[in-house]
Amino acid sequence: MATTEFFLGRRSVFNYAVENVAYGTANTAVTWAWPGFVQKFTGSDNQELFELNPMDGVDARTVGEYYPMVPKFGNTLEMFLQHMRFPMLCMGMTDTMTGAADPYTHTFVQADVLQSMSFQAGHLHSSADFGKQYVGNVCNKGDFNFAKGDWVRFSADFVAQNATKLTSYKSYQASIESLKQHTAAIIRPYKSSDLTVKINNVDISPYVTQARLGFDNQLHVDEAMDTATGELISQPAPQVQKWDAGITVKMHDAAIWDLFKAGATVSNCSFKVTNGTNNITWTLSGVKIKAANEPIDISQGIVVQDLALNITSVAIVENAAIDTDYDTVCA
């Protein structure tokens, strides 16, 4: 009796490319980019079905039929953070690279638009590869997560315009440093133990047990009223970008609660990860402490305090062994 070969999670692929022709049109380059150590990719596709019940003289309490309307495509991605090229696109930033030797400095500036991307993701198989190509991917929101004893994880949610079936995949870019595949031996992903957190210019890192820094592009998503597009969405429009952060600390004094109670803007706040000469710094502006609560519980060991921060904007600078501008596109 023949045995069945199942799809296996380890035998998978994800690549991406900036859409440099038009929204919803995949980059035609032979090779696409590598975002880092992707761990999970999940489609969130949904076919909107309209319950259609006509006055047809049928003596029944059953649904007449379901009719497909506008399909909704989207996905979520989670990866270990190697460098900022993919997150930069998700946040809607551009890169200015400076320096003549390793490490090169990449300074990110907020752009007025969000760049759309195309993704290929799916399963490898000895005889029947299966995957999906998503076009018109625009990031709605994302998070940098720092958990003790773990890698730094970047996760993002995307709205897509369309998805089609794949039976083969593009290879990874091999020449452009910011786009090609890097092993951990070449560029190690950041660990949470690489993290330094400062609040009010005080290094609270020894007391941090977990942290998160997140952004929300607040996409406005609408169906297109355009026969050329058909029953698909038009290009999503980013609205006011919002940042927030959450930090859990082992509490040993009331300094952060005092900052919360004062209600003033807290200056000199930052997140920074460092791996040798490679590092990324997120400098937070307009920080207000929304909450700084701790439970009073007789059964608790060391008291932990949960901080919630609202942030007006974030400036990001990366020093990395990558000598190409992150704005470079697959071609």
Q: How would you describe the overall organization of this protein?
A:
- The termini are far apart.
- The protein has one domain (12-50, 64-320).
- β9 (130-147) and β10 (153-160) form a beta hairpin.
- The chain is globular and about 75 Å long.
- It contains 2 helices and 21 strands.
- The protein is mainly beta.
> Per DSSP, what share of the residues sits in E-state strands of 2 or more residues?
over 45%
Q: What's the alpha carbon Rg, rounded to whole Å?
A: 23 Å
How many beta strands in the DSSP annotation?
21
Number of domains as seen in the coordinates: 1
**pLDDT < 50 stretches:** none
Structural class: mainly beta
Portion of residues within helices = under 10%
Output the number of helix runs.
Answer: 2
Q: What's the story with the biggest beta sheet?
A: 12 strands, antiparallel
What is the H/E string? EEEEEHEEEEEEEEEEEHEEEEE
Quaternary assembly: single chain
* Gap from first CA to last CA: 47 Å
Report mean pLDDT, rounded to a whole number: 95
What is the global morphology?
globular
